[in-house]
Amino acid sequence: MRIALVATCLGDAMFPQAPRATVELLERLGHEVVFPADQTCCGQMHVNTGYLDMALPLVRHHVDVFSGALSSGRADVAVAPSGSCVGCVRHQHAMVARRGGDEKLARAAEELAARTYELSELLVDVLRVTDVGAYYPHRVTYHPTCHSLRMLRVGDKPLRLLREVRGLTLTELPDAEVCCGFGGTFAVKNAETSTAMLADKMANVVSTHAEVCAAGDSSCLMHIGGGLSRLRSGVRTVHLAEILASTTDGVPA
Amino acid sequence: MTTDLGNGRMTTDLGMPTVASDPHHHLRGTEPFPVAAHRALADTQLRQNLGHATRTIRAKRAGVVGEVDDWEELRRAGEGVKADVMARLPELLEQLEASVTARGGVVHWARDAEEANRIVVDLVRETGSDEVVKVKSMATQETGLNEALGAAGIAALETDLAELIVQLSDDTPSHFLVPAIHRNRSEIRDIFLREMPDVDPALTDEPRRLAMAARTHLRRKFLSATVGISGVNFAVADTGTISVVESEGNGRMCLTLPDTLITVMGVEKIVPTWSDLEVFLQLLPRSSTGERMNPYTSTWSGVTPGDGPQAFHLVLMDNGRSNVLASPDGRQALHCIRCSACLNVCPVYERTGGHAYGSIYPGPIGAVLSPQLTGIDGPDDVNASLPYASSLCGACFDACPVRIDIPHLLVQQRAAAVEAHGRPTAQDVAMRAAATAMASPRRFSLAERALRLGRLLGRSGRIRSVPGPGASAWFGARDMPAPPTETFREWWARRDRT
User: What domains appear along chain B, each with residue ranges and CATH number?
Assistant: First the structure.
């Protein structure tokens, strides 16, 4: 299958290891990855901070770039290593377009959304694989991110993928489904409440004695990892894609 | 008259006040949410009380919801009934008025809180009584009825145990259902010892002893009061039946013992038919107290000669609801049945409590309902801060028994808050700059290169602090990795070439 990668703005600029791992994983599974180079950002930060008018050109740009890639036959589907970016594409892009009075864009956004997948969805639902041949000899706990859970309903797909990883010990995270407190601009607009939520998430992560806290969103990992680093907790954060891309050949993770 | 606001949005002038009146400041707080939350977060006793209480109630709810096979269908039924009600509210209200009147009740219409309070005060005065007993009611909290009655020389006694605790301590409620959720039992014992005349000085903090003390205190009043005041859970349009759902039985006392019963309801509390109660009487108790069925469900239709109150007044109050109804998205907020499930599952509410929201409607639903009822007046209005009091985690939608899309409403109200900015704020400028950079691939690449300067701050690979205003909001408790030496697109381009 030919797969267009949505690297996400945060993944491109700050956490390239997640989109890189996505490329390596999908290519190892025998698929062709294309990277539409004009992509920038899905506009989620603007949408979720209430700047729907400013988000409209970003939505239009995203739809233009990826609808172009899919309709020209360069790719069959699009994937992002992020639950929240796919959540924005699937549940907010058409709303932003309609609110801006652009019904044509709204329809195009809906068509694109139907062919855009979060990584665990793509693997389990589309590519029908749970054992991706990964090797990751570490003790890992998994934080299911809010938008992957409650906007996309990925359910236990990430866990099914992790359970097949050789060498990996999965430890259950208490209160796993509770938000880590990131919430985009919430983390700075309501920093103290955000930090209080983070404190509880970190306490739960530390209680698992895991070496690694994994998740499917670099943004949530930036938050949890930022807190764990400040505490010198000795727990590191790793994107799900990096674990799934990891093999005995030593892809760093 | 219909006005086009642009962007395809319309507003309809219904000849009603556009926003709620808030004579006693129960709908709009005095501090922005982050300021009020700061105090709450520092109160370790409050954090413990709330954490314990919400955890307990979440577990109970999850248990009883999990045992209903058709829970999702019930939610959809509740959503459907409420959407139907909002679509034909005027017609249903007139039907309710006719059926209540036909059964011997008197219906009053109140445009706003002041009018509702005035109607109730006048009705109580006509009875000659200078005291009333009250059933727990959000509508009369909203209007500040107790203050209005007090100003008219009429003493109002709250009879719900938790509401009594709040009233005795001159506090304000912090939860729909458990207004004293922020208190623990030893704090409650202290309040009773301090404020309750004739209380046994040896009172302990054993829940049973506390309830007995409250019962002794209240029962004298139940037997002497001649006027009862209640709110409404559901009002059935076709039969004129009013329903109040409760746990303690104090409501039943107030609804049956006095000669005169005055009931105040927000106009959205209506359901079309008696059989619609089937849906809501399953949804509400499981969502609110985590019970299969609540202990007391009272229903009454007008006046029954020789049985119960012989005078019944129903006050139908708008107070900003027509304004909410006029918003095609926002009107969902009127579907709320005040179960408080969204409060109990909200990670923000659990840590800040209800007072931080400044409105008697706290939590996720309050964060969208309060600003819709009273409006957002510019960037410094405390209402502008409420829609941001959420990480948009979505737990509220999953818990809502009538499927209100609260995360969507939060985003909509954030947009309303942004629109209320008269001149650009610092946040507007930053967002504009980011949008400009992100709208063009070339500018985005330039911004990425500029970001790499951040490596200077984090030579160890981690950035622990950044100079400049606002940075402490992140770096107060969190590090940030140094920007990578190579962005993804640079890696991709390099790989493409080799």
Answer: 87-321 (3.40.50.10420), 427-497 (no CATH)
Task: Please state the domain extents for chain A.
Answer: 2-126, 139-245
Dihedral sign from CA coordinates of B347, B350, B356, B358: positive
Q: How far apart are CA B366 and CA B92, in angstroms?
A: 25
Task: Say if residues B323 and B373 touch (Cβ distance below 8 Å).
Answer: yes
Mutation to test the B interface, candidates A3, A9, A14, most B Cβ within 10 Å: A14
Average confidence score pLDDT of chain A? 96
Nearest to A50 among B414, B447, B479 (CB): B414
Interface test with A, best of B332, B392, B406, B455 (most A CBs within 10 A): B392
Average pLDDT over residues A227-240: 96
CB contact under 8 A, A14 and B483: yes
- What confidence score (pLDDT) does residue B13 get? 56
Q: What letter does residue A172 receive in the DSSP assignment?
A: P
Inter-chain residue contact B451 with A13, CB threshold 8 Å: yes
**ipTM > 0.90 for the complex:** yes
Query: Would you identify the CATH topology of the domain A139-245?
Result: Rossmann fold (3.40.50)
Indicate the residue of B393, B413, B488 with minimum beta-carbon distance to A12: B488
In angstroms, rounded to a whole number, what is the distance separating the alpha carbons of residues B213 and B163? 15
CB atoms B348 and A197 under 8 Å: yes
pLDDT tens profile A36-79: 999 999 999 999 999 999 999 999 999 999 999 999 999 999 99
Q: Is A244 helix (H, G, I), strand (E, B) or coil?
A: helix
Helices B185-195 & B207-224 angle (0-180, nearest 10): 40
Angle CA(B386)–CA(A182)–CA(B178) in degrees, nearest 5?
50
Calculate how close chain A gets to B387, using CA atoms only, in Å: 9
Chain A residues inside the 8 Å CB shell of B397? 150
